[in-house]
Structure formats: structure tokens, C-alpha cells
Specification:
6-stranded mixed β-sheet, L-amino peptidase D-ALA esterase/amidase, Arg_biosynth_ArgJ (chains A, B), homodimer, 397 residues, EC 2.3.1.1 (chains A, B), alpha+beta, Ubiquitin-like (UB roll), ArgJ-like_dom_sf (chains A, B)
Chain lengths: 397, 397
């Protein structure tokens, strides 16, 4: 497998572009992904019971059909907008279908931004009609889906599968209300691999558990989260069957793309200065390991300690203790970077100068060995900073 | 029932005092409550699996005996301190028993402060030996249990029960790692009521669910939480039996003392500028109502919105949606103060000037009507501020 420079339009037969329609003041706010032929599609959605209108429309759309296009706006989430919001979401789908000359049943839609505001449909319509796939600017799509993100998030990988070069690309946005089980997070993955819709959905659901659902910025699960995958088969590989070498290669690509995007989102959490990676080993089950890891990176006290660059293992073991998994409080080993802080729950002497350097880095890894089993899991978060308060307290509805 | 000025030593036969032993630099850090006669006692403890040594010792002590004294230190939590920590906790119990001339089986102990540090036993011993119950200064006990709290927290109430004046007093400390299911929170309640240990424990357990366990500062459950109640019977009321008028009066006193202390802790959360009270009505069950209320006051996005004094109902409804209780996302009514923001999940026009004034107050109340049932529940939290980051990022182990 190879990581290459590229965009969401790198896989064969995909096009993407974006523009400024006018939902936001200056920045791009409307984008489209298009596939030459209808693609097999899979998706996971927010677990929040309050779901935005576009989630309902895309969920319904994906029930039976293949997808040929995805249209996304930022600036307005179209959440808590009632019947009019649902009508507007359907209208957005219809407008995009008409402009792209595809069936509306093959168009997925997504929105992100302010909750409780109706989509300005005249702006949306005028924007959609200006989309020009003859002169696509794929990076403009990456930009158009952002809200308070400070940078675009993308990764492209290639792999030979059964003699054919398969390409997979992913693009995502964060950056607040991030504690997915799907929230204000949008991620789109395109591939030219030939794979069935069923297998694609299975892999997406499974990998979401260990990647996108293992990041947290502020513990809030949004109303608009979605990860959407399109596979158009234009790489012309023999269709990928489960438990084959081709399958393993495809899953590895999917894992890398999902995990990379998830980490990019965590790292660019609102106000964050660093990525925190927690790895829990020696657990009874992988589920419990992931649970503990997510509690560690989700703790406000751990997050502020990391901002203050303090190796505060007391706050970490406290989070381990309330995570709700099986643990033996007397048996916990802990490391920050490669320096051990606890052995059998007892403090160890460590090199303070070296620790200082470890904590200054852009990525800090915390490892916890529960010493009661053989399973492991990871989670990713970010530090909690003055800037987070500024971004979220100064933001006014 | 009457609220009166007083201290934890106001009920008949109780004495309390505190002093600076030397665990902290300048502030008082060691305190004692003493009852003339052994008192019936009840307690609830942290649900964190990593429990501090004093929790283990007090839990064991309370199994069979009455309590005559409680000794508390701040500065060092005696958590994650292994065998030596447990020995030190027992030693602290023995030293206090010897100095106060009571059986060690009647002495409860509690600690709060830094995790992972051993108690300096010479300092503890010297401090205990200086405790002078001939010249007690009860407010010094209130001060001695504080950590990053900005003020002492106490309430005293009196009530005639079966012809006798019964007094109940409570004192507590917060103020970070607060998301009880018992955490860095300590609360002590004394009363001269005559009531059995069993009934006392029942009332404590029940009332903790709707008071202390319904507050959150940062979502972290500490290793040291404890609420301890002593009832010495010196009011000489006939023993309180369940489901009598006397019982109802006692429970009402207990509810007021517990809820008042809980709200004081939430309001004095680290860096907080205001108390946020969430009331959820129209729920299927009181448990679900409390769950939703606690998610609302626990949301970092709601907390920062309150700091920014922004009526951001989108963040509130988002928290309602991921709370995990039964809801109908289309049916939610919402108020801040007495102004309605949502009706059947649709935004309402409100008076912006009046809302501004409501949000500037020291207490902001959020009411959510789920409109699917008849049950209700409350929770209390505080805003999330620059100061919280400062307190927790600058604090170094």
C-alpha cells in the first residue's frame, strides 16, 4: 500500500469541486462529489436522537439505490428545522440531481454548521447551478465542507488488488461537537474498487468502531455526523470477496484512510495544540480497552494536564477507574511516550527533562496496561485550551 | 423547617475544629468532628474503581460500629498509594482515636488533595495531637477540608419533630473532578435526631441520587468522594419510624441540606462564574429526566455558551438528543429562565434584551419539557471558563 498526494477525486471516475455560494461570509460553503457511473455506497450516521434533515434524506436515499453524487453545504446544519427543513433537504437533493443530470435517488446530501437555522434555498439553488464539473477543483470540495476547522483533512492510498491498481481517497471535517457515535463530523471516502454494497457497509460499520468512534474533542455528539463511502468499481478488479487476500488488502486501505482522517479530526479539535493518543493493553476485551482509552482522552482533567504539559498520571488513573470496564486498581502500568510512570499502580521515578520534551511534542501517547487480559484498543483526543473556551464562548447564535 | 446560621457543630453534642498541620503551605488542612456519644452513621462512597485508602478504611469501619469522630485532611488524597497508603490511613485513624480517647472502630477518616502522594505521617501525627476540643473553632473544620474551593459550604436547619427541636448541619467541599457517583467531593452531615442507622442509610442513598449525584463540574469522578452522616440522638425525639410525619419532616430536612450543599459545590466549580440548573419535565421516568438534565449541564458546549451568555438552544437540544433517554425529537419545549426558546422543537421569538439579563445572572435555569410523560428531574453544573483551564493546566504534579 502506498500513500500518495491527491484528492477525493483521485480514484478513477470521480470528480469533485466546491465554491462559495453565500451561506458563509467569504469561505467556500458548497461542494459536490460526482462519479461517472453509479457507485455502491455505504454510510453510518449520528446516534443522536435529534438528527438533522439531510441525515434523514440521505438515509432514505441509501436504502436501495446506488449513489452517483454527493452534495454538501457548510454554514447551516439544517438541524431542528422541522418540516420546512426536511422539504429544503429534499429540494437540495432535487436541485443537485437536475443540475448534474442524474436521478435524485442517486444523490446523497449532507450539511454542517449552525443548528436551528433554515437553509437559504435561493443561495443553495444559485450555488448548485454554478457548479462546473467540466473544470473541477477537487481541493475546493475539501475546503467547502469545513466549519471551525483550521485545515483540510485528506488522505489518498493506492494498492494492487488482483493485478489492478485500486485507489482510495478520504476527506473529512471536524472540529467541535466531536465525540462521534457520529456527530458534527463529516467524512467522505471514494474508491474505484469493485466491491459489493453489503461488504462495503460491513467494513465501514466495523472500522468506524475503532476509528471515527474512538475520537473525542468535547464529548458532544452532534446531530449531523455521517461517514459516506462510494465504490464505483472503475479499477476493474475482480469483485472483492470476503476473507480473501484482496479483501484483507482492501480492509487495510480502509483502516488506514479511516484512522488517518479520525486522527486529523482529533488533532484539529477546536483550540487544540496537540493530538493525544491513548492505547490500552492487557484488557479483557477490545471493547473494554477502547472504552477505557476513550475515557482517558475524554477527561477534561487529562486534557488540561496535557495542555499544561504535566505528566499527571493521577488524572489518568482516575479516568481508568471510572471508565466502567473491568480493572484491578492495584495492577495498572502506565507510560507517557516510552517512560514508565506507574508499575502495578505504584509511581515510578522518571527522567523529568526527557518527559518535558515528550510532552512538548505535537502528539503525546499515553499507554495503559490493565494487566488483566490480552486485548487492546486505541482512542484519540486533543488538549483542552484557552482557545477552546474562546471559540465556543465567543460564538453567538 | 428553618434555616439558621451555624456550623457542623450546631446539632446537640457535636464539636468540630480544624488547624494547619503542614500538608498545605499556609491554609488549614486538618479537621475533626466529634460527638459526645457514639452516633448512628451512614455513608456513600465514590463509584470509581480506583478508591483512595481512607475510603477503604472508613468503609470497613462503618460495617458494624457507631461513629464518634471523623478526622479529615486536605492537601494529600492518599489515593494510589498502595500498601503504605493503607497502613498510613489506619495509622491516622489510630492516632485520632488515641488523642480523642475513643475506640478506633468509631473513627471515620477522609482525605482529599493530590493523588499518588503518601501522607506525611509526622505532620499528620503532630497535627492530630494539637487538636483541642476544649477550645473548638467549628468554622476551622469547614476551612480545613477545602482544596481549590473559593469558599466554605455549609447549611444548618432546624425542625420540631415530635415536640423536640431537631438540628441538622451539613458541610462540603468541591471543586474539580466533580461528577459524583461520588468523587473529589466530601460532605459531612451531622444531626442530633434519633434515627436508626438503617433508616439513615436508606435516606442518604436515596437522596444522594437526586442531589450530590446530579451535579457535575468536569465529568471526572474522583477516587475520594464520600458523604458521611452522623445522627447522635441527643435531640431526644422518639426514634423516627418510616412513613410517619416525623419521617417526612426528617427527609425534608435531609433533602434541603443535601441539595443546598450540592448546588454550592456546582456553583463553586473550578473557574465557574455561574450556577446552571437544568430541570427536565415531561419525561417517561424520573431516572431518565435526571439523566437528560445531567447531560445538559455536563455538555462542554452548553457550559461555554453559558459563559459566553449566549442562549444557544441548539447545543442544549443536541445534549438532550444524545443523553440516551426516550425522547421525541419533534416534541421538545425549552425555556431559559421564563422565556421560551423552543416549542415542539421549533425556535420561538424571544425578547433579546430580557434574555441578556437572564444570562448575566449568577444562576441560570434551563427547563426542557420532553412532552412524552409526567416525570421530572434536576441537575446542577457550572459554566466552563478560561479560569478552569488556568486552574487545571497550571497545576503541576
Amino acid at each position: 500500500m502506498q500513500i500518495i498526494d491527491g484528492t477525493i477525486a483521485s480514484p478513477k471516475g470521480f470528480y469533485a469541486t466546491g465554491l462559495h455560494a453565500g451561506l458563509k461570509k467569504v469561505k467556500k460553503d458548497l461542494g459536490v462529489i460526482y462519479s461517472e457511473i453509479p457507485a455502491n455506497a455505504a454510510a453510518v450516521y449520528t446516534t443522536n436522537q435529534v438528527k438533522a434533515a439531510p441525515i434523514a434524506v440521505t438515509k432514505e436515499t441509501l436504502k436501495n439505490q446506488k449513489l452517483q453524487a454527493v452534495v454538501v453545504n457548510s454554514g447551516v446544519a439544517n438541524a431542528c428545522t422541522g418540516k420546512l427543513g426536511l422539504e429544503n433537504a429534499k429540494k437540495m437533493q432535487e436541485l443537485a440531481a437536475a443540475h448534474l443530470s442524474v436521478k435524485k435517488e442517486t444523490v446523497a446530501i449532507a450539511s454542517t454548521g449552525v443548528i436551528g437555522k433554515q437553509l437559504p434555498m435561493a443561495v443553495i439553488e444559485e450555488g448548485i447551478n454554478r457548479i462546473d464539473l467540466q473544470k473541477p477543483v477537487p481541493m475546493a470540495f475539501h475546503e467547502a465542507i469545513l466549519t471551525t476547522d483550521t485545515s483540510t483533512k485528506e488522505i489518498v492510498v493506492t494498492e494492487k488488488i488482483n493485478g489492478q491498481l485500486v485507489t482510495m481517497a478520504g476527506v473529512a471535517k471536524g472540529s467541535g461537537m466531536i465525540h462521534p457515535n457520529m456527530a458534527t463530523m463529516l467524512a467522505f471516502i471514494t474508491t474505484d474498487a469493485h466491491i459489493s454494497k453489503q461488504l462495503l457497509q460491513m467494513i465501514l460499520t466495523e472500522k468506524t468502531e475503532t476509528t471515527f468512534n474512538q475520537i473525542t474533542v468535547d464529548g458532544d455528539t452532534s446531530t449531523n455526523d455521517m461517514v459516506l463511502v462510494l465504490a464505483n468499481g472503475l479499477a476493474e478488479n475482480p469483485i472483492i470477496e470476503i476473507n480473501t487476500e484482496a479483501y484483507e488488502k482492501f480492509v487495510a486501505m480502509f483502516q488506514l484512510v479511516s484512522e488517518t482522517l479520525a486522527k486529523m479530526i482529533a488533532k484539529d479539535g477546536e483550540g487544540a495544540t496537540k493530538l493525544i493518543e491513548a492505547q490500552v493493553i492487557g484488557a479483557h476485551s477490545d471493547l473494554e480497552a477502547r472504552l477505557v482509552a476513550k475515557k482517558v482522552v475524554g477527561s477534561s482533567l487529562v486534557k488540561t494536564a496535557m495542555f499544561g504539559e504535566d505528566p499527571n498520571w493521577g488524572r489518568i488513573i482516575c479516568a481508568v477507574g471510572y471508565a466502567g470496564s473491568q480493572t484491578d486498581p492495584e495492577k495498572i502500568d502506565m507510560w507517557i511516550g516510552d517512560q514508565q510512570l506507574l508499575k502495578q499502580s505504584q509511581p515510578q521515578v522518571f527522567d523529568e527533562e526527557l518527559m518535558k520534551k515528550t510532552l512538548e511534542k505535537a502528539t503525546v501517547s499515553i499507554t495503559v496496561d490493565l494487566n488483566i487480559g490480552t486485548q487492546s484498543g486505541k482512542a484519540w483526543g486533543c488538549d483542552l485550551t484557552y482557545k477552546y473556551i474562546e471559540v465556543n464562548a465567543l460564538y453567538h447564535t
